[in-house]
């Protein structure tokens, strides 16, 4: 925790993560009393007190989602799918998903008993012993060679899952496979927060070295009840923006991002401007990323703007195009002109056809 005293002598702790704050907000605003599940997202700065390292800063930025209200395996898979899709949308290809299950309270209790027995026989120093008494699972994440060696034969929680927990985890794995999401089982996974239960997961990127995590999360059944709310299940994840940027740089994936705009309209003359504004709205209503040139920049200036905006296509509209109802879309990468009827539906169809052809190629 990043804790310090302010000038008034008050102890201040800066928020280390987003889930607890989101849960308190859900409780205070009675969102848990309405339609379930409650699905929310958050984004913002968070803080850690540990020594800064590459990609691990004392102030870092995170985005995350939470799904509150049900403990179905299907919603676990959906939440993981959202994170997986987010990474893929950035062009990342080399990240890996690791999953495990921390089971229910009965499973964790059975494992804790055996793990405590195992640890009691180890010659741990006072500080490590204190940490193990608070949460013995943390020792699986200890990077000291002597602790890694000592924990090599420690009992693993996944081997103590009861029938219900095993069944739930099998269903989660099947859902992920059905969604074509690749994963591996990491039975020694330890997340940085102690409230996780059941399904737990982490996305890692092998090109980032020892600190390879780029995001992760899990189920936290019981947290809402601890914070004074209803006893509702929940699952979510957080993605570290700084870490993801490093992964994108390592793969050079940001240079492969789709064009900023599908289309840039270059109107020539006042009549064309008025026509273009209406076309702009119609195209945006159809989901096309489109903008237009303003300020009487003319053909040359308008095409320069199309290039600077990294548009895939440019569309010049003047009096002749309006009169004929026909215009040419210029492919800004290839320099080719493609004739189109000057209607939103025709332009949408043409852009879709070109994008589909590009993807197949």
Automatic annotation (TrEMBL):
One of its GO terms (molecular function) is histidine-tRNA ligase activity. Keywords: Aminoacyl-tRNA synthetase, ATP-binding, Ligase, Nucleotide-binding, Protein biosynthesis. Pfam families: HGTP_anticodon, tRNA-synt_His. GO terms for biological process: histidyl-tRNA aminoacylation. GO terms for cellular component: cytoplasm. The keyword Ion transport does not apply. This is histidine--tRNA ligase. It catalyses: tRNA(His) + L-histidine + ATP = L-histidyl-tRNA(His) + AMP + diphosphate + H(+). Residues 1-267 form the Aminoacyl-transfer RNA synthetases class-II family profile domain. Belongs to the class-II aminoacyl-tRNA synthetase family. Its EC number is 6.1.1.21. InterPro entries: aa-tRNA-synth_II, aa-tRNA-synth_II/BPL/LPL, Anticodon-bd, Anticodon-bd_dom_sf, His-tRNA-ligase, HisRS-like_core, HisRS/HisZ, HisRS_anticodon. It is an enzyme of class 6 (ligase).
């Amino acid at each position: 925790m990043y804790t310090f005293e302010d000038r008034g002598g008050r102890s201040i702790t800066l928020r280390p993560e987003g889930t607890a704050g989101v849960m308190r907000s859900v409780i205070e605003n009675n969102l848990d009393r309405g339609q379930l599940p409650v699905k929310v997202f958050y984004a913002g700065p968070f803080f850690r007190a540990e020594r800064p390292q590459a990609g691990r800063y004392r102030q870092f930025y995170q985005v995350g989602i939470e799904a509150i209200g049900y403990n179905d395996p299907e919603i676990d898979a959906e939440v993981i799918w959202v994170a997986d899709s987010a990474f893929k949308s950035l062009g990342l290809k080399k990240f890996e998903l690791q999953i495990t299950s921390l089971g229910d309270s009965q499973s964790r209790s059975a494992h804790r008993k055996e793990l405590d027995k195992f640890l009691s026989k180890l010659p741990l120093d006072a500080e490590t012993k204190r940490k193990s008494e608070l949460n013995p699972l943390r020792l699986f994440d200890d990077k000291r060679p002597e602790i890694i060696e000592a924990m090599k034969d420690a009992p693993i929680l996944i081997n103590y899952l009861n029938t219900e927990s095993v069944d739930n985890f099998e269903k989660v794995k099947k859902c992920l496979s059905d969604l074509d999401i690749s994963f591996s089982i990491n039975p020694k996974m330890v997340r940085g927060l102690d409230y996780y239960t059941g399904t737990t997961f982490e996305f890692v990127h092998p090109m980032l070295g020892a600190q390879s995590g780029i995001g992760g999360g899990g189920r936290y059944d019981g947290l809402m009840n601890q914070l004074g709310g209803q006893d509702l299940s929940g699952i979510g994840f957080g993605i570290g923006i700084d870490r993801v940027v490093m992964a994108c740089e390592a793969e050079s994936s940001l240079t492969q991002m789709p064009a900023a705009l599908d289309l840039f309209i270059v109107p020539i003359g006042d009549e064309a401007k008025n026509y273009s504004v209406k076309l702009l709205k119609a195209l945006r209503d159809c989901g096309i990323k489109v903008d237009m040139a303003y300020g009487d920049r003319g053909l040359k200036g308008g095409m320069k703007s199309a290039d600077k905006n990294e548009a895939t296509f440019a569309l010049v509209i003047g009096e002749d195009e309006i009169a004929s109802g026909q215009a040419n879309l210029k492919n800004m990468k290839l320099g080719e002109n493609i004739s189109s009827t000057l209607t939103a539906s025709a332009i949408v169809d043409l852009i879709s056809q070109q994008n589909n052809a590009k993807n197949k190629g």
